[in-house]
């Protein structure tokens, strides 16, 4: 039949036996130190055992089970009562001290009678290691005796010599065929044991007792092996987890009792600490630590380190609600992978951190993975003082509650300082983003340009792509006003697996942003042309696709293709392109960014330049981009000559003539032909810079030195110009001139080949 019946989680069960005593039907017993359901028909499904379980190991389930048999239960209880009459209480935990022992009356003992029976010194039950509950209350603050079974028989005065004033555990690793270290580890971890005394025989099989104790000491045991007998160290002073083993160097003969006393005052594993500097470096880099803020929840809401998870343990510190503190810790570490490292943050690095550490250890976290932030959040105690890394709970004007919020000034300070863990997701439509956005912000729109919300799938896809491109960061979501769309983004990010503790809302959104809202300062086409004509203070960076740059670009511009980040996620290539464009430039060089319309490509180029160390104040964007550039005669293009010679920059005859007629002074023509040809006919204003000579009708190339000398003289006479090289047909000698000028230190971006050379000019 289908009915309600208990189920026991043996992994959680500590073997305390409280449920055994609580069950009125005797349906539960202990087997191998764990609670088990003896028979299904003994369980009535009322659940008297549930409140008794301190480990939350017992629950109800609905399943196929035998019907409750009242008659069988009564027979079972009667048999158990009979078997237990006057006998051993079995697995029921009890602490009774010594007050139960009746001392003999003096007048009833004859002076001639047999010696009085020594009184028992046993103060608790059970004594078997397998049966005892690790969290039994009598362990805390006790002197602990761990005895091999045989020692009590081998040593006549065992009660007085060893059991007296001790909590006693006995076992035999050979008979039980188990490793006691797991149970002992739990006992040592959960309780503040003052001193451990181990008694064992000097026979090999007792070595398992010593080794179990050694393994169970929380901080481990440094055992010398050179003078050991079956696991007993023969040294007078051997470190064991920060404690000392005292033992005679002359070991007893085999078959006698040996004692090892371990002074374990403060035996709990030592607290580990992490400095504020190391924790900040971890946040900036690997982020190996999960940060647990164990202060009161109200203080966490006021200010906490970015990424920290609230795990309020105030109830444990005050002693008023340990259960609530335990639940808070368990919720904070739930589903964390094994081996997770924790940085515990409290008020000053003491009480709250210590309480949290103890709860975490009891929850199964290894002490070696728990680190307390030195000084906690108290600055004057050497604690956390990186204010820009602190966030707070935030309630927006629209009534949305956010776990983490950051003010505009704080975000700007982080971005200006280059604090890389923070990445801004701009949730606005692409037009709003293009019109101006926080520098370095990633466009992750949640609605289109008509004001219509994108589908859930598209919105999540936009955010997912940004997260994938920026893993292990803190995501600052920026919407229009810090309300509806910020709330949507938080929920979307949680749905795609991002922890809410890693999501920060920009308070007030774009409307409240007080820092730089555009990609850079704009420069008009007229002002940029005036600069080209005169000082040429700006170096031109063309951020468009390389193919479009090759087709046409403003004279002097250097290609730095940003398409890989505008329409992709390849920031590394974009950074490399930007770096190549500015390599060799002075620190105070000014740059004008050119893109298609003065928006997206220019904004990304600005970001990449800044990441390469360029001061934002030295960057401007051509207003309107190439769409706004009207000076057609200032446009050049890549050029391949009739003989297959490739030139980065070429200019047609018509274009050169238009520039010369307009008096556009940045252009100077270098005539590379021999003197005879030049004197016969040349372009007005062209400078003779011959690369060959004609003597008696015979034409020969000049030496490299002479050619470079001719060009160098012309460059020095015309500094900061664009040099249009004119040869016979726009082939070999134009190519030679480009190479010579580069050798002289002239940037290739300032050298332009006249397409078709003098032959094309004369033809027109």
Structure explained in plain terms:
The protein is of the alpha/beta class and 764 residues long. The chain folds into six domains: 2-89, 2-Layer Sandwich (Alpha-Beta Plaits), CATH 3.30.70; 120-263, no CATH class; 272-385, Rhodanese-like domain (Oxidized Rhodanese, domain 1, 3-Layer(aba) Sandwich), CATH 3.40.250; 388-512, Rhodanese-like domain (Oxidized Rhodanese, domain 1); 521-630, Rhodanese-like domain (Oxidized Rhodanese, domain 1, 3-Layer(aba) Sandwich), CATH 3.40.250; 639-763, Oxidized Rhodanese, domain 1. It is 31% helix and 22% strand. It contains 27 helices and 40 strands. A seven-stranded mixed beta sheet has the order 17-21-22-26-25-23-24. Helix 15 (456-469) packs across helix 16. The radius of gyration is 42 Å and the shape is elongated. The protein starts with a strand and ends with a helix. The relative contact order is 0.04. The model is unreliable at 84-91, 99-111 and 219-255 (pLDDT under 50).
């Amino acid at each position: 039949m289908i009915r309600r019946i208990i189920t026991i989680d043996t992994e959680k069960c500590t073997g305390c036996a409280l449920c055994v005593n609580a069950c009125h039907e005797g349906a539960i017993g202990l087997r191998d130190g764990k609670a088990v359901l003896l028979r299904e028909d003994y369980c009535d499904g009322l659940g008297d055992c549930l409140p008794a379980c301190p480990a939350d190991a017992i629950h109800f389930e609905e399943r196929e089970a035998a019907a409750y048999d009242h008659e069988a239960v009564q027979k079972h209880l009667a048999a158990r009562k009979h078997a237990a009459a006057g006998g051993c209480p079995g697995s029921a935990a009890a602490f009774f001290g010594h007050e139960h022992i009746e001392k003999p009356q003096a007048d009833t003992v004859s002076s001639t009678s047999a010696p009085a029976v020594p009184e028992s010194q046993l103060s608790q039950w059970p004594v078997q290691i397998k049966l005892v509950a690790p969290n039994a209350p009598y362990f805390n603050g006790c002197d602990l005796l761990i005895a091999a079974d045989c020692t009590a028989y081998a040593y006549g005065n065992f009660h007085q010599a060893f059991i007296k004033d001790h909590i006693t555990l006995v076992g035999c690793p050979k008979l039980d065929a188990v490793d006691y270290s797991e149970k002992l580890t739990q006992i040592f971890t959960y309780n503040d044991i003052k001193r451990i005394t181990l008694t064992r025989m000097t026979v090999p099989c007792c070595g398992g007792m010593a080794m179990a104790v050694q393994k169970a000491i929380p901080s481990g045991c440094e055992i010398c092996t050179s003078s050991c007998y079956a696991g007993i160290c023969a040294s007078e002073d051997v470190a064991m987890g920060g404690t000392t083993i005292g033992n005679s160097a002359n070991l007893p003969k085999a078959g006698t009792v040996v004692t090892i006393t371990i002074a374990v005052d403060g035996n709990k594993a030592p607290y580990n600490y992490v400095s504020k500097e190391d924790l900040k470096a971890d946040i900036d880099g690997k982020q190996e630590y999960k940060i647990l803020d164990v202060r009161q929840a109200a203080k966490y809401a006021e200010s906490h380190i970015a990424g920290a998870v609230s795990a309020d343990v105030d109830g444990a510190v005050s002693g008023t609600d340990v259960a609530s503190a335990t639940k808070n810790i368990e919720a904070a570490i739930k589903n964390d992978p094994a081996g997770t490292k924790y940085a515990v943050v409290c008020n000053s690095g003491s009480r709250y951190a210590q309480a949290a550490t103890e709860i975490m250890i009891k929850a199964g976290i290894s002490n070696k993975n728990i680190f307390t932030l030195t000084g906690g959040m108290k600055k004057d105690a050497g604690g956390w003082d990186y204010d820009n890394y602190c966030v707070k709970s935030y309630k927006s004007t629209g009534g949305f509650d956010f776990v983490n919020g950051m003010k505009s000034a704080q975000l700007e300070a982080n971005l200006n300082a280059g604090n890389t863990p923070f990445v801004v997701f701009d949730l606005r439509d692409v037009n709003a983003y293009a019109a101006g956005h926080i520098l370095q912000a990633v466009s992750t729109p949640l609605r289109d340009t008509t004001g219509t919300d994108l589908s859930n799938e598209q919105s999540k896809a936009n955010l997912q792509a940004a997260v994938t491109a920026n893993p292990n960061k803190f995501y600052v979501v920026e919407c229009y006003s810090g309300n509806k769309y910020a709330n949507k983004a938080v929920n979307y990010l949680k749905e795609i697996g991002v922890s809410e503790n890693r999501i920060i809302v920009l308070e007030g959104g774009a409307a409240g942003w007080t820092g730089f809202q555009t990609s850079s300062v704009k420069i008009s086409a007229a002002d940029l042309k005036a600069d080209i004509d005169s000082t040429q203070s700006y170096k031109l960076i063309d951020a468009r696709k390389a193919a479009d740059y090759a087709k046409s670009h403003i004279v002097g511009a250097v290609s730095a293709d940003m398409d890989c980040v505008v329409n992709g996620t390849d920031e590394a290539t974009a950074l490399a392109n930007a770096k190549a464009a500015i390599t060799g430039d002075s620190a105070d060089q000014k740059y004008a960014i050119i893109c298609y319309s003065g928006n997206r490509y220019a904004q990304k180029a600005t970001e990449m330049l800044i990441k390469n160390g360029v001061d934002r104040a030295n960057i401007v964007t051509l207003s309107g981009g190439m769409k706004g550039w009207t000076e057609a005669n200032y446009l050049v293009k890549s050029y391949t000559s009739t003989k297959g010679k490739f030139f980065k920059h070429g200019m047609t005859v018509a274009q050169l003539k238009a520039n010369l007629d307009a008096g556009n002074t940045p252009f100077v023509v270098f005539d590379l032909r021999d003197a005879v040809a030049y004197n016969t006919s040349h372009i007005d204003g062209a400078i003779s810079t011959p690369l060959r000579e004609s003597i008696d009708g015979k034409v020969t190339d000049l030496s490299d030195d002479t050619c470079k000398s001719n060009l160098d003289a012309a460059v020095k006479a015309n500094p900061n110009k664009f040099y249009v090289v004119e040869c016979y047909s726009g082939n070999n000698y134009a190519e030679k001139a480009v190479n010579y000028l580069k050798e002289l230190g002239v940037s290739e971006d300032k050298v332009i080949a006249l397409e078709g050379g003098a032959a094309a000019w004369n033809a027109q």
